[in-house]
Amino acid sequence: MERLPRSCRGELMNHMCGVIWKVAGVHMKSLIPKGGLHYKMVLQEEPPPAPVHEEEEEEDDLDDDDPPEASEDVPPDLDYVSDNELDLQPLHSSKLDRQDLLRLFPEWNGEVAEVEDHAIHIQVKRVEEAPPHHLWRSREKERLHQEDTDTLICQIMMQDLTHILAGTPARLVYDALDPAHRHPHSLHFHSAWESGNLRRVYQVSETDHTQWYYFGVSNMRKDLTYHFRMINMEKPSSEYNQGMRPLFYSEKNSEEGWHRIGDQVCYYRNQYPRHHSIDDHYYTLSFNLSFPHDHDRCYFAPSYPYTATLLKSHLSGFSGLRDRLRRTVLCSTVGGNLCDLLTVTEWGCSSEELERRKYVVMTSRVHPGESQASWMMKGVMDYLLGDSPEAGVLRSHYIFKLVPMLNMDGVVEGNHRCGLTGVDLNRQWLNPDRQVHPTIYYAKHLLLHIRSNLGKEVALFCDLHGHFRKKNIFMFGCQRSGVDKFKERIFPYLLSQADPNFSFESSSYKIPKSKRSCGRVVVGKDMAVTNSYTMEASFSGMDIGPNRGNHMDTTTLENVGKHLCQVLVHYLEPSQGMIQQTHALVKMQEDAPKEEAAPSKKKTKKKKGKATPSTGT
Length: 617
Fold this sequence. Notes:
Blueprint (H helix, E strand, L loop, with lengths): L5 H19 L29 H7 L19 E2 L16 H7 L44 H18 L4 E5 L12 E3 L9 E4 L4 E3 L4 E4 L7 E8 L13 E4 L8 E2 L2 E11 L7 E9 L7 E5 L6 H9 L8 E8 L5 E7 L6 H5 L2 E7 L7 H13 L4 H9 E6 L4 H6 L24 H16 L4 E10 L5 E4 L13 H9 L12 E2 L6 H8 L5 E7 L15 H18 L4 H22 L20
Parallel strand pairs: 5-7, 15-16, 15-17, 17-20
Antiparallel strand pairs: 1-19, 2-4, 3-6, 4-5, 6-12, 7-11, 8-9, 8-12, 10-11, 13-14, 14-16, 18-20
């Protein structure tokens, strides 16, 4: 198996898992609860999305915009669209009323009432004492874990099968909706706080538990090894098999902050069917852990938590910066929370000077489980509102519209991708509903008002995300054609020169059909914004630059937010030499795969009638 490529090994292991469960002929009651709150990846499973057409199902599994050429685990037959195939929407005027305009555009409307800190509304959970905030600290880089995951997966599968065939009972020791199941001699689990996520926990043996993420535990013994298995993961591959480890925080070791922990970490297909299908199964994240103290209180998460309360605390620190900031409300969410809108520019200038400024719009946390986005946005806000000369230059040339938390309801409730309405908000940009998707509706109409009503240029739109199945920090853009070809690649190239942790080579500009309704495509194509991007940061770590082989940390994330702003300074007047260098680099990358494939005349087999795209970026 070691001679096989990593992608083939992963596919083979998944097939082996499926064969084992079918051959065993096991008919068992699933431990995954049905009905009520579903849970998914980092949080409770959310209501199932609307069905997709058969030809889109395989591509929709790539929730995070995986370009096939950049990930070995991605099937290479995604269905892309070109410029002339896009059914572009006309650039119509926004539907904002006078009160909306006063709130969203304070730079043109004089003094307006700014938002004050307000309570966070939690719709679903009973609220326990929340984990302490500011649990991070500067520390040495943490290396990605080295593990023979193929052998480990086989061993754990055999253990699972032994438990099933032996009829080993699984005792319910935690239910988020019923606290009566706590057992005095078991670990005590906790998750009923803002952004917490844990639905149920079963104890399989004295030290085996099956459960879910962002949660806390107590009542542990330090002389035991606990085996954790999270049984309702949905993605068919994960960076957990490539060195990623869970994050851990101990109250008794609070000086250590959040850090990576766990041994025998692996990710594999399990025996629990999804959607009542024989062939469609959930996946398990498995790891072992020995706690450092008796009777501690500890927390687990896949990435550094960043809650809505932490955002409010951070924004309150900017309250005195009236010369450069207005904090207003984008809108009220479905759950009754107020979505913040920050307008950053140099105030007090003449209307003629304000008229010359271009707009930059940045959004974050449309997918609430991707907390890396908030750390990048924190870097953006701290830099733009800082006192550096470069920040002053930016504020005097641009008007920045920042939405730090587009899906605040989802963040508060501990969801992974959806809000309270059970839909992925980043797939609603084509026709957002004012009542059902209010934050997307107002974000889109803010941009429409800038482009259509004001007739102003949007120099940059950037939506910040996290990525589960790739390393590094990179961008997805919108490929241009004709005289504008390659222009969308200049900004990512400049960012790769400013930040060694940003990968220009991992970035992609093709548009899969299923992403037609996401933010970057609607803004990039329908609103004709050349620099329209999704910026992704890995949950795992880096395989380039000075941090190669290290886990991602908050310092790296904040720095890339800072560098994202710094590039805008140089992008004001990009030299012709830099543009030509970028064009040449891109052309070499596109030509290389064609030259390698030229000697072969064999046609690639098509699947389900879809064309296989080229492997170039």
